[in-house]
């Protein structure tokens, strides 16, 4: 839509846009995604029955989902539904469709679905790999999750913390590698001579190499599993190693991990502050969409294509045009308010107002802060009253001066002369 209100979208395109932006459409797609999740769970359980007998020849498994024809048909139908949705969005937004990350994800999901079907029939590839492409459909469920405020905050906090989590993982990896080297040098000679029996088959080789030592530290320090099973016998055999093992616990568990947790919490807090700004931008975008829709409706009710509206056209549109009345009610403008807005804009008194100015005025009434508006009106009235009083006093003084001058110019009566 241009600034003058002339539409550049076809009616079909506008209808498709309205359809895909309704809450009902989003709810229907949410049901479809949830049904797709149930179907994937069912497919996974069916495929699990093929192991271990058919692990290396999963396509020959008589219990696989290939033997259940309705699952294949439902998957094709779901892919068709996703294709129609993505095609509708692409028809409405054209190349701007790819500006949104969610739209790019939907497009990738559709392409991955077709690839999984074609590759499954033409290429000899592991079915589990193809199944991963179907699982990408479930990423659309995040849209449903984002509609819930609490879950939205958790997901945005997690997403904003991924950078901190990554670098924190790098820090932990480096610290565990360094301590693994130390343990191989000092703890392995002691640990190799200990007899753990059948209670812990791996304990005797827990520090025999850097990778084994790394796994032992990850199990005992990071995962918190059976620290005393291997550490206490080593400490009892060589008490000085208690300093090294305690230093590992303090530096990794109490130091690095808590520091990483603090950074993650701080990142989530920053994300929440940024979310407030994003909410404001989203609200402004929604209001602008409503304003654009009102501009399109005004262009439609402008029967003479003059770019202006009369008061009669507005009243007629309120009674006969349901869209115009709905948008006005959304903007909290009543029928009686139309006359007031019209007279404000019709400064020259020609009985016509530009409908772009009309939309701007209605939009300002909706978005402006009532308290601020009242304060500004009170200030304007006070200023106008003061200026009016100054003008009246000035005019009164000029009149008094002219009256005194006129009075002094009159001839004096004879008795007053004597």
TrEMBL record:
Domain EF-hand: 289-324, 333-368
Membrane topology field: Multi-pass membrane protein
GO cellular component: voltage-gated calcium channel complex
Stretches that traverse the bilayer: 27-46, 67-87, 107-130, 151-184, 240-265
Pfam families tied to this protein: Ion_trans
InterPro entries reported for this sequence: EF-hand-dom_pair, EF_Hand_1_Ca_BS, EF_hand_dom, Ion_trans_dom, VDCC_alpha-1_subunit, Volt_channel_dom_sf
A GO molecular-function annotation: calcium ion binding
Highest taxon of source: Eukaryota
Record-level GO BP terms: calcium ion import across plasma membrane
Cross-referenced Gene3D superfamilies: 1.10.287.70, EF-hand, Voltage-gated potassium channels. Chain C
Protein name: EF-hand domain-containing protein
Lineage: Eukaryota, Sar, Alveolata, Dinophyceae, Peridiniales
